[in-house]
Amino acid sequence: MSGAALVWCPFPDAESARSAADALLDARLIACANILGTMESRFIWDGARAAGSEVGVLFKTTAQQLDTVVAQLGALHPYDTPAIIGWHADAAHPATAAWVATTIPH
């Protein structure tokens, strides 16, 4: 394992995505947030099929901070039930792993 971790989370718009990313960066809980363009999401909600536009974000953090990032995203997110999924990176380029590790305090 690389010691790096990733978190995926869709937001209702770019503004809320940027706000969450900036809060996590300022707290030094993540090294990076890749805010993607608007995407179409299709899902089951309240027992029915639904669809909407969302902005996806991929957050880069350390394995040690993964649970904290997931919890903080839950607190920052505008949705009542946000889709926040985190996982440990099985592999990372050595330079990337070093950058993430040195950017985020333990």
Beta strand %? 35-45%
Q: Going across the biggest sheet, name each strand in turn.
A: 2-3-1-4
Annotation field: number of helices: 3
User: Count of DSSP E strands?
Assistant: 4
What is the number of independent domains?
Answer: 1
Q: Which word captures the global form?
A: elongated
Reported by name, the CATH topology is Alpha-Beta Plaits
Q: From the structure provided, what is the oligomeric state, counting identical versus distinct chains?
A: single chain
Radius of gyration: 14 Å
- Profile the largest sheet: 4 strands, antiparallel
Low-pLDDT parts are none
Distance between the termini: 17 Å
Helix content: 25-40%
Helix-strand string: EHEEHEH
- What's the architecture in CATH terms? 2-Layer Sandwich
What's the CATH C level? Answer: Alpha Beta
Q: Mean pLDDT across all residues, rounded?
A: 97
The secondary structure category is: alpha+beta
Structural summary, described in words:
- With 106 residues, the chain is α+β, with helices and mostly antiparallel strands.
- The chain has a single domain (4-103), classed as Alpha-Beta Plaits (2-Layer Sandwich).
- The chain contains three helices and four strands, in the order βαββαβα.
- It has a four-stranded antiparallel beta sheet with strand order 2-3-1-4.
- Helix 1 packs across helix 2 (66-76).
- The two termini are 17 Å apart.
